[in-house]
Hints:
By secondary structure, the chain is an alpha/beta fold. It has 3 domains: about 5-180 and about 345-425, Ribonuclease Z/Hydroxyacylglutathione hydrolase-like (Metallo-beta-lactamase, Chain A, 4-Layer Sandwich), CATH 3.60.15.10; about 185-335, 3-Layer(aba) Sandwich (Rossmann fold); about 430-535, Ubiquitin-like (UB roll), CATH 3.10.20. The chain has 15 helices and 26 strands. It has a 6-stranded mixed beta sheet. It has a 6-stranded parallel beta sheet with strand order 15-14-16-13-17-18, with helices on both faces. A 5-stranded mixed beta sheet has the order 1-2-5-6-7, with helices on one face. Strand 1 (about 5-10) and strand 2 (about 10-15) form a beta hairpin. Helix 6 (about 185-200) runs parallel beside helix 7 (about 215-225) and helix 9 crosses helix 10 (about 315-330). It is globular, with a radius of gyration of 29 Å. The mean pLDDT is about 90. The protein binds zinc ion (ZN) (2 copies). One zinc ion binds near residues 55, 57, 143 and 370.
Amino acid sequence: MNMYIVECNDEIIIMDAGILFADDDVHGVSYIIPDFTYLKQNQKKIVGLFITHGHEDHIGAIPFLLKQVEIPTIYASGIAIGIIKNKMLEFSNINYNLKEYTENSIYKYKNFEVSFFRTNHSIPDSFGIAIKTRLGYIVNTGDFKFDFMPIGEKSNYYKMTSLGKEGVLCLMADSTNADISQFSSSEKKVGITLMNLFSQIEGRIIVAAFASNVYRVQQIIEASIASGRKVVVFGHSMEKTIEIASKLKYITYPKGWVLNSRELKKQNTDFVTILCTGSQGEPMAALSRIANGTHKQIKLLPNDTVIYSSKAIPGNELFINRNINKLVHAGAHVIQNSPLTDTHTTGHASQNEIRMMLSFMQPKYFMPVHGEYLMLKEHAKIASETGVKKENCFVLDTGDVLAFNDKGAKVFKKKIPASEVYIDASLSDVDSNILKERKHMADEGLLAITFTITKHKRLIGSVVVKSSGFADFESSKSLENSIRQKTLDLFTNGLKEHKNINIKALEKQIIVGLNQFIYQKIERRPLIVPIINVINN
Ligand SMILES: [Zn+2]
Ligand SMILES: [Zn+2]
């Protein structure tokens, strides 16, 4: 997730407020957002939030930020405005002030002047941000690549070189593909491949793509129309993208060629394109349900071709391969991106484009951003090869502060608070203890122990032992009995030691004692929940 702060005297500029989608091993957590503590403490200094582009890892945390911190104005451009507005509909009780910037906008403050330059990326209207300071420009490239045959507008090379000429103090640049040599291929090339494939394939085409990749969606629609196929759209995020982008004219098509999922039934032909989500093997996404045979409207046909117009985000390979296996097993032909078939290209700069950006900007200091640590390191290496002094390249951690003055630059010893904040499906933050419990329960199961005592701590009835995901007591009566007996022993011993022991302490003793007992017996550590009911007579 991305969020950067530039601070000088009594002014703070924020760049981006992104979200990270949580991995499956963070139980019940949907998103991870930045820690806003520092901004809360310095709220008065904030002059504005500037958004580079409309991807979730740059705008997703805006509602959560607004809940905690007052932001005088959010500045965004083009399609990002539409996406932010649409996102805020879910949070109708939050007020915000959203302003559109263009490439010619300049915002002046006491210590800063903010301007923008257009770049190419996998979504329209991606901009770099240039902040003029007393010491020179601080430039954040945002996510970028140099596409010499872009769909949509060209990068503003002139403005980038002009910034370099005026003097860039520090360049912060996208490191996503810093380990990939040469140039990233053009989006137009993908369009040509898709056109060819669509014209050669005879049956139905199911194509999975990233919903946020507006240019790709447009090209898939064009290839479909050229081959005489209507496009039927599946997946909430895909429908949303097409809705927003069509309204703003980023996606265009003749009326009647793009249909919603309900209209599939009405087509009396299988010669269509099904455009769907699920390129990452997400279990609930349309393509996964098609692969599993559990999709209500789409059953695979023997002549189907499935095209992945995407790449695997690291970590998702297993899920994707599982789906591909199922698709092939059901008789579909599957086409993935490969050197021979460009069904996808990245939206991020490879090494030669990175070198170009560094040559345009000629920064005094360099700070690689946006990428795994390995990529940041690689990017710093490229920067030093391109002419930035090695000691002027700073590979930083989240929360690090890089400070500049007339004499030079240094990283502060003290970080600002920057732990990850977890958000669950109800859109509220999740305590890290709760997360630990969820993980514990998922790994080891749950053991609940219930019994009733009088207020004089006399046991009434028997101890009830219940397991969920821990042990099958039906087939292991002896384990159940031994746990019950051990609980009784712990209860009696607890009372023997302190006659006036309170219920909380008693429960704790039972947890500790049972934990040891069960581990010695079967080497398991379930989450133990004792419930002691106290009745008055
Ligand atoms: Zn992006
Ligand atoms: Zn990004």
